[in-house]
């Protein structure tokens, strides 16, 4: 419930008749997703860090760069692919650069842009980390679900991601139009 401020300065809850509250089944599904996701990401992060010394964020940056031509992406494109804010990505990449995993350089095509390139050291770290991480993903997610459940999960998250990406694009367009 939201709150309003009363004449005496105290905050009072107010009803929202227009809110579409979650049903019991929707609440169970929401909480199951939230709790399962948090636990899954926690265990994957812990095992990856323990096995390779890489964080999940660092690993994902290396994966995306490994799939790009020349193992290079513009920072803005990398941020979009990872659904990270630019400041969060900049912090992660700065740490990775200090560790010799990536290098940043001005984009030749656009002086305002910055490219991020995986180094040979970064490539070796990714190659070393990938087998254990894939086994962890398999053990804690893929093998826990039936193929139908895994397919449904993937489709559901694609829909959520697309809706959020569309909403973010619309918000940016609206802000730029002002």
Automatic annotation (TrEMBL):
Q: Name one Pfam family in it.
A: MarR
Q: Which PROSITE patterns match?
A: HTH_MARR_2 (PS50995)
What InterPro entries has UniProt attached to this entry? HTH_MarR-typ (IPR000835), MarR/SlyA-like (IPR039422), WH-like_DNA-bd_sf (IPR036388), WH_DNA-bd_sf (IPR036390)
Q: Which SUPFAM superfamilies did the record assign?
A: Winged helix' DNA-binding domain (SSF46785)
A GO term for molecular function: DNA-binding transcription factor activity
Q: Which GO terms describe its biological process?
A: response to stress
Q: Domain HTH marR-type spans what residues?
A: 19-162
* Record PANTHER family: MARR FAMILY REGULATORY PROTEIN, TRANSCRIPTIONAL REGULATOR, MARR FAMILY
Q: What is this protein called?
A: MarR family transcriptional regulator
State the organism's lineage.
Bacteria, Bacillati, Actinomycetota, Actinomycetes, Micrococcales
């Amino acid at each position: 419930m939201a709150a309003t401020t009363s004449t005496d300065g105290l905050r009072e809850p107010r009803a929202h008749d227009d809110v579409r509250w979650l049903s019991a089944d929707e609440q169970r599904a929401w909480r199951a997703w939230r709790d399962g996701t948090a636990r899954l990401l926690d265990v994957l992060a812990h095992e990856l860090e323990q096995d390779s010394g890489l964080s999940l964020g660092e690993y994902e940056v290396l994966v995306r760069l490994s799939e790009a031509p020349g193992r290079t992406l513009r920072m803005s494109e990398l941020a979009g692919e990872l659904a990270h804010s630019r400041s969060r990505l900049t912090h992660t990449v700065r740490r990775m650069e200090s560790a010799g995993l990536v290098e940043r350089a001005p984009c030749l095509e656009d002086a305002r842009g910055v490219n991020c390139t995986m180094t040979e050291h970064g490539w070796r770290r990714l190659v070393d980390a990938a087998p254990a991480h894939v086994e962890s993903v398999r053990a804690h997610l893929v093998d826990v679900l039936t193929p139908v459940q895994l397919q449904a999960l993937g489709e559901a998250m694609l829909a959520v991601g697309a809706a959020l990406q569309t909403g973010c694009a619309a918000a940016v367009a609206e802000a730029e139009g002002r």
